[in-house]
Amino acid sequence: MKLLGKKIRLLRHQKGWSQEDVAKQLDISIPAFSKIETGITDINLSRLEQISALFEMTVVQLLTYNDPEQEIKYASDLEIVTKKLQEREVEVIDLQKKVIELYEEIRNVKTFV
Question: What is the mean pLDDT of residues 50-72?
Answer without folding.
Answer: 83
